[in-house]
Amino acid sequence: MNLAIKPFNKKPARLIFLATLLVVGGFIVFHNWSRPVIVQSHPEPSNEPLHSENLSGFSERDLGDKLASQETIELSEKRKAEFAAIKEDFRTKIYPSQYGVRDVSQKRLERDQKIKAPMIAAKEGDWELFLDETVHLQTMSDYLLSASISSAIRHNAPLHVFEELISRGARFLPRHTMMLAMKNKVEMVEKLIPLGLSIHVRTASGDNALNALLVTFSARRMFDFLLYNGVEIQNGANIEDPLMKALKGAEINTEAAYYAYKLIQYKAQITTAHIKQFNNLNSINSKSYELLVRNVPELRR
User: Fold this and answer.
1) Counts for the chain of helices (H) and strands (E), in that order
2) Which tens digits make up the pLDDT trace of 144-188?
3) Largest Cα–Cα distance of the chain, in whole Å?
4) Residue 107 located in a structural domain
5) Residue 265 located in a structural domain
6) What domain range is 281 assigned to?
7) Which DSSP helix (H) or strand (E) runs through 165?
8) Could you identify which of 67, 76, 209, 284 might form a hypothetical disulfide with 181, taking C-beta atoms 3.0 to 4.6 angstroms apart as the criterion?
9) Does residue 244 belong to any structural domain of this protein?
10) Overall pTM surpassing 0.85 (yes/no)
11) Domain count, the chain
């Protein structure tokens, strides 16, 4: 007996499945199409004041929060204006009456004017007025009085101006020594040393007067004076020593060769780095090189 199973015919099953889908889909479309559409109308904005009965869907609590927020903003602006008025009253009335000043900003302006007045007088060369104006500095601080010496140096004040300032309590600062050195004022330095000027001081960065002159190479007499009076040949604010500064300066300024010559005369130490810099100088500035060859045989190794 033949028991073989006949193959299943898939075509009728597929047709039945598609027909079912069409019937269900058509029912859904018809149901939704037949339902009425509800359109909600939005009222036009009104200029009437806000009241709870006019706000459908807006709770009284929400309205209270909105009004409270508006009141807070208005109160904040009001308080700012009141605070500004109080601050102005304090600045112009209360503070001056209690502390004896007219106005804080006015006081600062007057202080700046007192500091600038001696500078203006010095620039104009009116040394009588300069000394009169520095009396105000004396009442403000000793440092400001000492700092006024800078104006005297810058504009070539006569000796009696320095004497008067020192008698009032002014003191020479390290920058005054540097300024005088760079101005090549040897005679003035000699006169100011008895008044307290030191040629051996260093600035906060570590430079002394010799280092200050190894920038422009324009004060031979002062350089000789400092070396003769024992100012130390030392490294300044950067790593390079004075002799290296002079040799590098000779690349663009022939005058720097003289400074190198004087440093070696006063026993500046010569290293292989100095020799190398000297040899390189031949191809960069032949004039400086020839001057050093003739006058500094120590560099020819």
Assistant:
1) 16, 0
2) 999 999 999 999 999 999 999 999 999 999 999 999 999 999 999
3) 148
4) no
5) yes
6) 206-301
7) helix 159-167
8) 209
9) yes
10) no
11) 1
